[in-house]
Amino acid sequence: MGKALDGIRILDFTHVQSGPTCTQLLAWLGADVIKVERPGTGDVTRGQLRDIPNADSLYFTMLNHNKRSITLDAKNAQGKDVLEALMRTCDVMVENFGPGVLDRMGFTWERIQELNPRMIYASVKGFGPGPYEDCKVYENVAQCTGGAASTTGFRNGPPVVTGAQIGDSGTGLHLALGIVAAIYQRVATGRGQRVLAAMQDGVLNLCRVKLRDQQRLAHGPLTEYSQYGEGVAFGDATPRAGNDSGGGQPGWILKCKGWESDPNAYIYFITQAPVWAAICKVIGQEDWITHPDYAKPDARLPRLKEIFARIEQWTMTKTKFEAMDILNEYDIPCGPILSMKEIAEEKSLRETGTIVEVDHPKRGKYLSVGLPVKLSDSPADVVRSPLLGEHTEEILRDVLRFDAKKIEEIKASGALGGAKPMAAE
Ligand code: CAO
User: Using H for helix, E for strand and C for coil, what is the string for 330-370?
Assistant: First the structure.
């Protein structure tokens, strides 16, 4: 069966997490992704957070499936020639180096357009144009500068970063969307274009509801925040809201049976208005169905703390899975707090290909997350990540159509690593 991006070739000059997330998604959608890596070390994550000696780390393998790897010293003259040849033949180039790195290599946007006017040149940077555009950025820096940290955590505690990699993987996802849109536009214009995803912008996009709340503050307290019910005044910026729901249906995380010893024996419980009567029946508090202090959503807002404490008396008598089963019978929205162990063992996620087991020649079997979007006409098979430089010769021969003599010359120059440059011998 064909794939959505069949025929699209990507020069993947990315490293660490944000860029590789983007190119991995495009590879799953069918693009031929050629990852260019520095000889010797490759993508720095190959060696980071290693769990098995001398094997590529899970950090690397889980972000670089379905790609081919070529090692190339971009600062070697022959290496640069190979890179230029790749730029001429690829449809898209993706990079997430620090600001100015590619310009220093000699690959400005103007130069890239000269080499290939159809090239879509896509970058992740920490910030867009402005006072911080020259700064290097990692995940948590983006979470802090994009508004996530100031709005995450509890009111009385410090800002908190989230485990979801919204700065890195989130921005990679945004970039992938920009790239497929640019590929589509190129069909009409015949031209490539520059695509930029700044991590600060990506995080802010995911924090859109918090900028909504910032503006609502000018018109009165945020009544759905539990701070309102507790009588605590609001300041001039969107506060941290603990586990309050970010929408119009109040919610909170409640203890379940076993919470004393199991850090994940909790459930997220939403007091959705249409099922209020069902909630009251389940917890054995039928009088709240008609009581003027509890019957209507507006009346409940100042009492959310008391209401959730009462519901928790019930959830603490059930395991999170028992509670989920009972609540679902009444269409009451809720979700058990699943640990990574539970997710890894979840049968249904394996069946849909969201969690896949991959075999790797150096590290053996491991679990990864497959393509989280399912396309009926473009199935995504997960293929193990490449070893460093595994496809170097294949790419020079089959993609660039270099003959054996030329490949030998390039090897001898040191451009691919291994051999010493001739000039230094
Ligand atoms: N051959 C020769 N040199 C190479 C090379 C190759 N194949 N690949 C990379 N290099 C060199 C570059 O030329 C550059 O050297 P110079 O600084 O001398 O020009 C250097 O390696 C890479 O620089 P860098 O600034 O990208 O790397 P870093 O480790 O210092 O910083 C990071 C890492 C992530 C902070 C930075 O790349 C960055 O800010 N990227 C943009 C934002 C981003 O994507 N952050 C997400 C990080 S996690 O996904």
Answer: CCCCEEECCCHHHHHHCHHHHHCCCEEEEEECCCEEEEEEC
- Helices 18-28, 168-189: inter-axial angle, 10-degree rounding: 50
Q: Is 172 in the pocket of ligand 1 (CB under 6 A)?
A: no
- For residue 187, give every residue at least 6 positions away whose Cβ sits within 8 Å of its Cβ, in sequence order, or none: none
Tell me, in angstroms, the distance from the centre of ligand 1 to residue 91's CA: 22
What one-character DSSP code corresponds to residue 240? P
Share of the chain above pLDDT 70, in %: 98
Between the CA of 18 and the centroid of ligand 1 the distance, in Å, is: 12
Q: Over the Cα atoms of the chain, what is R_g?
A: 26
Kindly tell me if the per-residue pLDDT of 420 is higher than 70: no
**Three-state SS at 121:** strand
Tell me the per-residue pLDDT of 96-145, one tens digit each, with 9 for 90 and over.
999 999 999 999 999 999 999 999 999 999 999 999 999 999 999 999 99
72 CB within 6 A, ligand 1: yes
Catalytic residue among 56, 73, 91, 168: 168
- Whether 276 is in the pocket of ligand 1, judged by its Cβ within 6 Å, is no
- Ligand 1: residue whose CA is nearest its atom 24: 98
Q: Which two tokens stand for residue 216?
A: 């609502």
Distance CA 52, CA 79 (A): 31
Per DSSP, helices labelled H in 245-345 are: 276-283, 297-300, 304-315, 320-329, 340-345
- State yes or no: is 134 an active-site residue: no
pLDDT of res. 419: 56
CA distance linking residue 56 with residue 78, whole number of Å: 28
Counting from 1 in the atom list of ligand 1, the atom nearest the Cα of 167 is 46
CA of 25 to the centre of ligand 1 (A): 21
Residue nearest to atom 6 of ligand 1 (CA): 38
Pocket test for ligand 1, best of 75, 136, 165 (most atoms within 8 A of CB): 136
| 156-188 burial: b if 16+ Cβ within 10 Å, else e | eeeeebeeebbbbbbbbbbbbebbbebbeebee
